Amino acid sequence: MYRKGLFRAMLFAVLGCLAWTYAAAKPIDVLVFTSPYCVHCRHLKEDKFIENFAARHKGEVNIVHYDVTQGQGNLVFIKAMEARGATSMGIPTVIIGDEVLQGYPNSIDRCEEVWEKVLAEQKAAQPQQPAVQSEQEDPDTTLTDKHPAAGAQEPAAQDKSEGTPAADIAVAPEGDFSASAAVSASVQDNKEASAQEQALAQHEAMFSQITAWAIIGAGLADGINPCAFAVIVFFISFLAVYKYNRKEVILVGISYCASVFAVYVLLGFGAFRFLYAMKGFTYVTLIVQWVTIGLCAIFFVLSLYDFMIYQRTKKSEKMLLQLPKSYKRFIHKVMHFFLGEKHGSSWLLMLAACSVGFSVSLVEAVCTGQVYLPTIMIILKEADKHFFKAAEYLLLYNLMFIVPLVLVFVLAVCGKESATFNNWLKKHLGLTKLLLCCVFLGLLVLLLANNL
Length: 452
Prior knowledge:
Blueprint: H1 2-25, E1 28-34, H2 39-46, H3 49-56, E2 61-67, H4 71-83, E3 93-96, E4 99-102, H5 111-125, H6 128-136, H7 138-145, H8 150-223, H9 226-241, H10 246-277, H11 282-313, H12 325-339, H13 346-382, H14 387-413, H15 418-451
Parallel strand pairs: 1-2
Antiparallel strand pairs: 1-3, 3-4
Helix pairs in contact: 1-6, 1-7, 5-8, 8-13, 8-14, 8-15, 9-12, 9-14, 9-15, 10-13, 10-14, 11-13, 11-15, 12-13, 13-14, 13-15
């Protein structure tokens, strides 16, 4: 009976040690959330920081990469952040245990010390398993102690009474000490991380506000762009020449504005889809970004040139950023083709107006796209975090773009003639060019801030 109890005790001890060894050898999960459009994510990848960290702790960490631009990766990111009570959703983000590190290199460079802290906490919790198993051995031991062989009883009791406190002294205080040290260190680390997260959150909130106002301003400025505004003025005069009454002007105006809005939204989402398709090609993405920055700088210089030329000559013929005459003639032909004859049915009239809006928008995109393209690149920055936020910005831009168009149609319904709008355009043409200069300069600064 004594041998049977001893065998069980040895078996439980071996199994406990194996379980403890397996738990100690279990790698720690490290979640890495990035995006192919994030500049800091690219720096993290180029520096091979995560790869070097994984190489130093081969077999001790389990690196799992997630792309937040993918539906599954974005869902995992949101759930992981909500589970840890994190409010800032910036990237790149590295999660080790319950620790959230955001931003590279300011926060993610603490991966080493955070990993050591999590490892220390894991080790501090692991010795409890063999202790519990040794306590489970007590019933067998006490049963053998009740055996009449009193000579074997005392040594067993003595081993137990001396071994357990020895284990407590050797393991528990050291474990408690390291745990308390880790806790005190983690408190300090959490304070520093909290300060960094607050600063990052404030920066992102400020950048988000700047982005929203930049998009509103860009959309309004693009809406009164001489290219687009001249077409609106001609359209109003065209409707007046062909004797469209108030009801017909309202139907044409609603259909035309809705068609322009839909076309520009589709063009914006098309740019999204193209850049998402290119996300795996880092160099292609960089080329597109820097080409856009270069075009924005060129448009700024050309807008400034147009402003100076117009201020000197008061003539628009010498301006560079405007629709070519061939494009203007094509737009006039489209209007004559679809609306040259009045349609008896309101639905046919609205369909004709939508056709005009669709055709004119595609032609005007050559000119209005000068503002739209760099704005889309800024909006794409928001797609790193939330696609729906980027979609909201895209819709906001296009709503602002058609505000001048809607206003002109409303004034036309109220009785204003096309000559009034034409005179306003000539009087403020220099101001609109100066406004476009400011828009291009602001977009250029934001693009550079996102890519440097």
